[in-house]
Design a protein that fits this description.
heterotrimer, A alpha+beta (396), B mainly alpha (575), C alpha/beta (303), A: 396 residues, alpha+beta, 9 helices, 24% helix, B: 575 residues, mainly alpha, MetI-like fold, 2 domains, globular
Amino acid sequence: MAAHVAIDGVTKRYSAAADSGGVFDINVVIPGGKFTTLLGESGSGKTTLLRLLAGFLRPSEGTIFLGDIEIASNKMFVPPQARDLAMVFQSYALWPHMTVFDNVAFGLRSQKTPKREILDRVETTLSLVGLEELQHRKPAQLSGGQQQRVALARSLVLEPGLLLLDEPLSNLDADLRVQMRDQLKALQVRTGITFVYVTHDQEEAFALSDHMIVLDQGRILQQGPCEEIYSRPRSNKVAEFMGRRGLHLDGALDSKSQFSISAPSGGKQVLGTFPHVDNRLANGGKATLVVHSESLRLEAPGATSECFLSVPGVVESTSFAGRENQVVVRTGGDHSTTAYAPIRENWAPGETVQMSFRPESSWVFPTGRAGAGASGPDSEPDLATTDVADSSRSSS
Amino acid sequence: MNSPNLHGSSENTATRRSRKLPGTQISRNLVWVLTIVAIGVLVAYPVARIFWLAVSDPSTGVWDSAAFQAELASSAMWRATWNTFIMAIAATALGTVVAVPMAWLCERSDMPGRRVITSLVFLTFMNPPLLLGLAYVMIFGPNIGLLTGWLQALGIDSTIYSWWGLIFVTACASFAIIFMTTSSSLAGIDGDLENAARAHGAGAMSLIFRVTLPLVRPAIASGALLSFVLALNAFGVQALIATPARISLLTTEIYSYFSYPVQFSAASTQAVVLIVISIAAAFGANLYIAAKTYPTIAGKGARADITQIPRWARWAAFLACSGAVGLSVVIPMSVVVARSFVRVPGRGFGADNLWLGNYSQLFKLGDVSGALWNSLRYGLSAAALMVLIALALTYFRRERAPGSKFVFTIAEIPFVVPGIVLAIGFIAAFSRPPLALYGTSTILVLVYVSKFLPIAIRFTDNALGQIGSELEEAAYAHGASAGRTFLRVLLPLMKRGLTTAAVLSFIFAFNELSASILLIGTGTQVASTVLLQYSQEGLIGNMNAFAAVLFGITAISYAIVIRLAGNSVMTAGTN
Amino acid sequence: MVWYTSNATPAAEAIGSAFEKKYPEIELEVFQAGGSQVIAKVEAEAMSGGIKADIVDYSEGAAAVGQAKRGLFQRYLPPSAGDLSPGLVGENGFWFSPWYLTSTIVYNTDRISEADAPKSWKELTEPKWKGKVGMASPDYAGTAVATVGIWQQQFGDDYVNKLGANGLTVFEGFGNVHESVLSGQTPVGINLSFRALQAEKDGEPMAWVTPEEGQVLLTFAAAITKNAKHPNAAKLFQNFLLTDEIQTMAAEDIGYFPGMSEMAEDTGIPDLDKIKKFGADLDELSDPNFIAEVKSNFKNATS
């Protein structure tokens, strides 16, 4: 049965130095049977968290449960080989001196599974990933994509309670990546194994996950289903992640909830009031206005519309991105925003432009890095818990 | 909610795996403890005895630093120290200057005869240095050396018994080591690193000096350090040449302290000085190496291209390389073999002066076959033990077992201890029950293990280091125990490196001389001491005959190893 | 029975096999090495647990004197020891010399005629022989220590200095000297009597000279160790050394001067009594401090 993972107050410190990496106060339940992604930049702690789950690292504080079994804490530690999991590595880590078959069979042999069963299961899994013809080859004779599938098969054949994947697609070329992405998702649905997947690519995370955990500097910023994180980010940083370098405008919120920015000529320019304002700005203060790139529309200056608010800027560069034009716009100060315009619109560098958006598609947060897991404008209960509660209630 | 798994059954997989964990933990800890004990017995204890000898009265065992202080104050000792240092540095420098271009030519260019040259360099290395020295005395000795006349015609009024002779012979032995480490590093360079330079317009020379050379600098430094330390501690051939040359060296001084009246403390003091210098050199070199080491395997790891050199240069290079191996092994051994058929030395090679008697006498004189057999046996046992211990040490250091770094460092010490002093340490450590090993073959094997373990470690460590940690982690992540991971993943991937380690350990043990001198007993003579004996007794014909036999054995073992493990076994894993 | 000997290999071989032939039930284990090495080994063993040998012999008797004083040997003299020439029996009977050796001047007959050959020790310091003389190092060869020490006792400190200044080449062992003389590297050498005699016998182009001042008489010493495990076999061996058979063999085959004085006439060896020689003040020679001084003087002179 697919196991859920409970991480309870886990901290991993590498050293006393403040910037030595690690993760801090992680509290999360990863739902069983789902595809969960750990999303973050490099250095965010996502790999550390994965390795804590795998058992290559011991937590400095806190407890980790796999299913109902305690696997790591202050007092005890179950090494990786005794945990009911398997892992796919970024570099695939196929054993070069063994054939594809032997690579895949390795885990089963370690469990002393009878030969007949090994043969059976390995062949089934290999055909699942489409590699049954290549079982006698050595890894060096395979392409990148094939190697990746061997790594996958090696883990899947064990039917583990938990499958950990460490950016397994990052070494593949773009086309293959998308293909494999689809395959991975399909495999997860088919096998029902709990997948925990690490990536820094937000698009990939959206495509694959049921559930997402956003990490930054070792802490969880937000977790929940993808749409929720996308449309209801709880902090500046999360929004930044989701928004593909959208609009981040620094300004101030006054006590009447009016957001204003400093006008180029001095003084203030009031942009208006916004529906989604973080709780912590109840009394006003320094605030940042955040809008996802996808929600920005480019217009000539002066165009107004009922439902839209605008922010002025100057075009920095334009590039052709296949199905649209990618336009980089500079707003007041140093900030560059990326917006997308239909092909037929030609925006030239140096042109003054106006970025418009619906107020409902924006958020106002306290300026700077808001604490992880800060309570958002709508204090919702932790969605993740609800999911698990649901699944465990209906499990047999 | 039951998720259908791959086979449709719905067992509870969370508890399927139950590992017998405590068992494997215990046996693993046991192995580690045994390793620590081995290092303690083989290294820490004898070396500690040596240090103690320096500052105590040997007959009473009481602290007495008078001898220690007197020795440190003696200018004769410092002169010997200075001489030794100069000799080692000069020989290493000469060796480097010769070895590096040769390594490049053999490994990375299209010079003709590369394989032959490489094999000959290894033969140099596998030969006991004493053979080399003896041969050179014949060729370049004063008054009547075969080629001394030529030298004098060239205006060089000097013979082999001089500084240049000493440095030259020492360099002959050491350049092979530098060749090996450099070769192997050159072989491992990612081709892309050089191609990138070419793509930016680098010409051949520029490529070599600005890309290739910097990349292999650590390997060169590593080889140079090894040969420096070996030269510092070398005895056999140094005594042969330095004594008539009136150059006092630390190792010869130490040996002279063992002639009557024996001065253990003074000898140990000098050993302490040698150890300190060696450690300082090793420390400095390792800092340099660490600072300059860049990963040479960047992208996909394609082998680097062969550089073509212009036709005229190709043959010039071949000539130069042939000259080098000619001097280091071909000419000396030819002379040795030729003279092994001579009845009376000095009377030329006329038919009336040639016979096979030197060979037939070998088997009457003392226990030649016994000594050979001993050398073989002890060498093999020592090599096996060394590789096992090295494996354990490198494995546990990788796994960061408690104290592993410390034990690792300790294991490296005997390498910098002169053989004769190490022997004294062993005698002091193992002469009383329960470990009364003196005079047995065991103590010889043990001292070889102690002395050359660092070499086995170096090659084993490299072999293990080349295996990415992910390969190990992948095994654990799929349920394999530490033991199974070691046996099925690590060990098979280390085969080449382990073979190299074993072969090299064997060669060093087989040729060891300075420690053996004091530790051989009745029935435990070894080939190198027999050779020395013949040399000292003036049994010239027999000496040459025996030398020829030893060389034959060396060449045959080399051929066997190459056959078994492939051509590049000697350069495997010395990055 | 375990025998540590500094007899040259052929000599040790010969004596060893003769003994085994006579006493087949006694298993003989031989350790043969240069005098210096044997002494070092004995000292190392004495320091740490006991000497493994039953019998030790040195070509440098002086060491034995010192070791006897330190109680490393047991007292034993073969019954026929009374017939030994005087001076061949150690004080209190801890050791004896079955035979003598001398150090003397040898030269290569192919390269130097008899007329030209050096006639005295003193002559070796003359420009005629600059760079042409070789000898063994006191650091490696016990007999060399004795030789140099006796020179010092006879000629004073300065002799060695002059030799050194005259380009004396110092080799590791006597074997190296031998080779050097034969090959002509150093056509004149200071070597041991029995080697010269052996060379003559083998037809090698080497001859010896009795210098005007005399040959240097060295004392060979053999002793039974105090805690020998096979004292009876050892005693048999010591007796054996003084039998006619061995004395004759020592003289004729090896070239030693036999210790038993009446043997001298029967063999082809020159009669030692008729050779001019001078020997050591053994007490002084056995003093480690004196030895150390001798060695360091030599080192200074030849560096």
